[in-house]
Amino acid sequence: MPKKPLPGGHVFEPRARMQVPKSFGKAGTPFAFVGEEDAQLAAAQFQHLVANTIRECVLRKSGTLRSYLEEAKFPSEMTYDRVSRIQRGETMMTITDLLIWSNAFQEVRVRAAELVAAGSPVREKLDEEAISVEPASDPEK
């Protein structure tokens, strides 16, 4: 069993941000969150929605996650145990994981792009906290 992450930093359990943690990654489950609106909440919401899309794609293709992973030509790190923990929100999804699934299923790629383009419900708060940087001046002007 993996160790629970220490509080703080950017390592967290995404499903801990849901009022009903066991509903993480399940279809038709609205994301009722707990805690303050921050980047971790936005990441948990993103992972929840992408996990739903992955689950739907896998069900259509192979029926079960285990059988899909046995057939897929994924890196050895994409074990059933690890992917299951990501799908349940016990472990954070990495950019590498997202890219692997995006290459496997167009629906995941489209869903992730839509979510990024739409921004998150906490985007305005994050924008307020961002440091404003002036663009570099054009040396030819």
List the helices and strands and how they pair.
Layout: H1 39-61, H2 65-71, H3 80-88, H4 95-104, H5 106-118, H6 123-129
Helix pairs in contact: 1-5, 4-5
How would you characterize this protein structure?
The protein is an all-alpha fold and 141 residues long. It has helices at residues 39-61, 65-71, 80-88, 95-104, 106-118, 123-129. α1 runs antiparallel to α5 (106-118) and α4 (95-104) crosses α5. The radius of gyration is 17 Å and the shape is globular. It starts with 38 loop residues before the first helix and ends in a 12-residue tail after the last helix.
Envelope shape? globular
Task: Tell me the radius of gyration.
Answer: 17 Å
Q: Helical element count?
A: 6
Oligomeric state of this protein: single chain
Total beta-strand segments: 0
